[in-house]
Write a structure and sequence with these properties.
Layout lengths: L5 H13 L2 H8 L7 H11 L8 H4 L8 E5 L3 H11 L8 E5 L27 H11 L8 H7 L7 H9 L3 H13 L4 H23 L4 H7 L15
Parallel strand pairs: 1-2
């Protein structure tokens, strides 16, 4: 509520007037028992896709399109946004669909912030990361090392490998790991060890950078009046 006033809220109202209940029901499966907040939420989700929601940056301009990286589950919101954009004299947003990072239990499960064993969190210690990957990460390997050497594993369902496809920047090494795993040359333990090292380094770097973010800097960045280098974007 601290940040949803002014132009942002006016756009929410304009969008909410442009989306009918029938449209929302067809898109999201709402029925007569759905809470009014759920029905109204698509208009809130859509508003940041319009540049005029941020007059401190873009002034009153409506001609700057928005590029939205999101997972496929967010697609319905922005399909509706595209439908109402032009009638409201805004540019239609575009999407880049990203893949879901699988939960530790495998590609058919889902992460939960309330279930610690489903994910590696950004505040996890190196020891916690190691324990989670070793204990909970679903393996695409065989039931024994002997069978794994003989038949190989499946990197397509192996969570440690899947995480490496996200966080290991060396594409050649990623390909070699997949090939070696399929041939049984790389064991599940070795795959998990590589994943642990990469995640510990990646998360550790972010944690170090986060230490330099002060409460004052957070307050400044959330203050619409705080001077920004890109203020010239409000001019055509």
């Amino acid at each position: 509520m601290d940040y949803m006033g002014g132009a942002f809220y006016r756009n929410i109202l304009s969008i909410s007037r442009s989306i009918t209940f029938n449209q929302a029901k067809a898109t999201f499966g709402f029925d007569n028992s759905s809470a009014i907040g759920r029905i109204h939420f698509p208009s809130i989700q859509a508003a940041p896709a319009f540049c005029s929601s941020f007059p401190e940056i873009f002034g009153t301009r409506k001609d700057i399109p928005c590029l939205i990286p999101c997972a496929i589950d967010q697609d319905p919101y922005f399909r509706l946004t595209r439908d109402v954009a032009q009638p409201l004299k805004h540019k239609k947003p575009s999407l880049i669909h990203s893949q879901f990072l699988p939960a530790l239990q495998g590609i058919t499960s889902k992460m939960s912030s309330s279930i610690d064993s489903t994910a590696v969190f950004m505040n996890d210690t190196p020891a916690q990361i190691k324990n989670k990957i070793n204990k909970y990460a679903f393996s695409g390997g065989q039931t024994s090392l002997e069978e794994h050497r003989q038949f190989g594993g499946n990197p397509d369902v192996d969570v440690a490998y899947q995480y490496l496809t996200y966080f290991l920047e060396d594409d050649e090494e990623v390909a070699q790991l997949a090939d070696g795993y399929r041939k049984g040359e790389i064991s599940t333990g070795e795959m998990k060890a590589r994943c642990i090292k990469v995640l510990q380094e990646f998360i550790g770097e972010i944690q170090e950078r986060a230490k330099s973010v002060s409460d004052q800097l957070l307050a400044d960045l959330q203050n619409p009046s705080f001077p920004r280098k890109f203020a010239s974007l409000d001019k055509k």
